[in-house]
Amino acid sequence: MTEYDVRYAIGQQEVKGYDTGQLREAFLAEKLMQAGKVYWVYSHYERFMLGSAVPLATPLSLESIDPLKADFFLARRELGVINVGGDGYVIADGEHFELAREEALYLGQGNKEVSFHSMDKDKPARFYLNSAPAHHAYPNCKIGKQDANVLHLGSQATSNERDINQLIINKVVQTCQLQMGLTRLKSGSVWNTMPAHQHDRRNEVYFYFDLEAEQGICHFMGEPRQTRHIWVANEQAVLSPPWSIHCGVGTGSYAFIWGMAGENLDYDDMDKYPPDQLR
Questions:
Q1: Fewer CB within 10 Å of terminal CB in the chain, N or C?
Q2: For each of the chain's 279 residues, which pLDDT tens digit applies?
Q3: Binding site listing for Zn(2+)
Q4: Residue ranges of domains in the chain
Q5: pTM of the predicted model, to two decimals?
Q6: What residues are designated binding site?
Q7: d(CA 224, CA 275)
Q8: How far apart are CA 263 and CA 47, in angstroms?
């Protein structure tokens, strides 16, 4: 079963007049990780898609949806998969890829038949999905934890010590424009992506997970001098337009997956805004 929602692009002038409900409706993905279902948000920012697949006893198929106007999902797209649940596997045109927790998979343009599977229906895989338009068919590739390019950033003194695991980036695997990675904060650190940044040449989406049910994340967005915030629960995601900053702070420990697409594959291509420049 596949379900999807569509989010249209919204400019910074419009957002200045949005109340809490309108911000959440426009930028928060609240329905991810539904058991026994593939769910997508089709965004008009870079035609980026974020979604999830949680297979139980029955596998789930990657199906095309109407906005794609394509015979199969990856006809003109590439796909990134990161598992945040129990052991599972993905079959792509006969290729079998086992994914343990926090392992990733890149699927290139042209794969016609893709299915998601759990090893144990009582401890199902929880596949987080990102997809972007593709102009070239690059090879499928599994990225294990040992394959990641790891950056150690921040410090305990500024409450933002963290490991950035770059999984689906061009230093690790060839892609057209999709980039994904997983950031985990060290014990006692609560701020992610500080100093805050934006990059006008690509969008970004944050998917938060491993957050206790009674805790929350305050995610900051908007222009650097016109910031807004959205409270986010476990296994929810926030879309960040190219004109928006993105950073957040948690009331407890957590991790998040970042995904980007756009015209520039340079990870460090960003405009940074330290706290004293934010309003």
A1: C
A2: 999 999 999 999 999 999 999 999 999 999 999 999 999 999 999 999 999 999 999 999 999 999 999 999 999 999 999 999 999 999 999 999 999 999 999 999 999 999 999 999 999 999 999 999 999 999 999 999 999 999 999 999 999 999 999 999 999 999 999 999 999 999 999 999 999 999 988 999 999 999 999 999 999 999 999 999 999 999 999 999 999 999 999 999 999 999 999 987 888 888 999 999 999
A3: 197, 199, 204, 246
A4: 2-136+145-277
A5: 0.97
A6: 197, 199, 204, 246
A7: 10
A8: 12
